[in-house]
Amino acid sequence: MSQSPPDATKAVFARAQLYGDGADAPRRVDLRLGDTLQMFEQGAFRAAWAFADIRRVSRAPGALRIRALTAPPQAWCEISDPAFAAAIEQRCRLLAGDRQEKREARWRIAALATTGVVVIAALVWIVIPALADRLAPLVPVSVEKQIGAAADRQARARFKGGACVSSAGEAALARLVDRLKLLAGVPLDVQVGVLASPVQNAFALPGGRIYLLRGLIESARSPDELAGVLAHEFGHVAHRDSLRAAMKQGGAALAIGLVFGDMFGAGAIAVAARASLSAAYSREAETQADDFAARVLNEAGRPARALGDILKRIAADERSSPLDFLRDHPLTNVRQDRLENESTQATGDPLMSAGDWLALRAICNR
User: Fold this and answer.
1) Could you tell me if 147 and 267 are in contact, meaning their C-beta atoms sit under 8 angstroms apart?
2) Is the pLDDT of residue 30 over 90?
3) pLDDT value of position 339
4) Whole-model pTM over 0.70
5) From 124's CA, which of 53, 161, 209, 314 has a CA 20 to 30 Å away?
6) Are strands 202-205 and 209-213 parallel, antiparallel or unpaired?
7) By residue range, what is the domain housing residue 83?
């Protein structure tokens, strides 16, 4: 017949087990299992070992020798009662010592790593994009300008023609910008430049940097059309839309910054800058920028439909932009209708003189 295993659940006491401390000869002790392993010598309490501190020394045939991390270095206890030894093995989770601790540590690290990946993924794909509209106003303007400066360097690098420089053209553009800022009625910290690119578009970067492209200026048929585009970009700046889009698209940078201590550091700013160049605005952001432009043009007594006219021509142009971040102004029928409905007749003075208009159109001529 096979021998039944010892019943560890009933093992509470063990009489006359062997105990040694390295100083005196080994002696007999009685053991009791409670919240700890308790030792009694001739009825007097001698020591208590926490189960988490107990380690196996060896297991000779018929005996289990153990020690405790908190006991004197040479102290040991040898248990010859099979049921009590089985009870010790049940209660002492770290009986195997270093190997078991390392194995459990690896499991804990793996669990933490998995949790970290899940948390970061949630931040990247769900939390930060969802909260971008609420988080953007909390970002200091100085940080937004750093992101804009980094995005500006990247944007300039993509246009090999560089910036257009003409004293007369730049002066004409500055006068138009100053007038539109005054008409906007809100504080606007913007810097507007022109890049020598045939693409018909304009874009705003975080921090108030705005670029008109040569192709857009050449395709504009009136100062009103160009002013409408500029006022639209002013609307994106006023609403910090470029920063919001960067935070939605570049959520990973912010999440990594949070985890590794680079929040708004060089790494996060660089990735957020790249994100701002590839991010497209939401329909709501485009509508709000349209409304902003319409208010500015109407305040000047100029027709808001001028913006719709130039956007419609750009949308119909077969030449597609080589850069994704320039495809951010899709002209829907709803947008076209809103601009036409909010339009007024031209009752105000022209936004630019004839001389300034000619100078601006020639700003990229060298």
Assistant:
1) no
2) yes
3) 74
4) no
5) 209
6) antiparallel
7) 8-96
- Got the DSSP string for 109-141? HHHHHHHHHHHHHHIIIIIHHHHHHHHGGGS-H
Examine residue 243 and state whether it is found in any structural domain, yes or no.
yes
Q: For 63-115, write each residue's pLDDT tens digit.
A: 999 899 889 888 999 999 999 999 998 888 888 876 656 666 676 777 777 77
Beta bridge partners of 44: 41
Please report the pLDDT score of residue 139 as a whole number: 77
Domain count, the chain: 2
Which has the higher per-residue pLDDT, 277 or 185? 185
- The first and second tokens of residue 162, run together, are 């560089």
The verdict on 86 and 35 lying in the same domain is: yes
CA distance 202 to 229: 7
Average pLDDT, the chain: 80
Are residue 45 and residue 151 in the same domain, yes or no?
Answer: no
Phi, then psi, of 270 in degrees rounded to 5: -65, -45
> Tokens 């005196």 sit at which residue?
24
Residue 69: alpha-carbon gap to chain centroid = 45
Is residue 280 situated within a structural domain? yes
Same domain, 152 and 217: yes
**171 and 86 housed in the same domain:** no
CB 55 within 8 A of CB 75: no
Which pair of structure tokens corresponds to residue 184?
């906007």
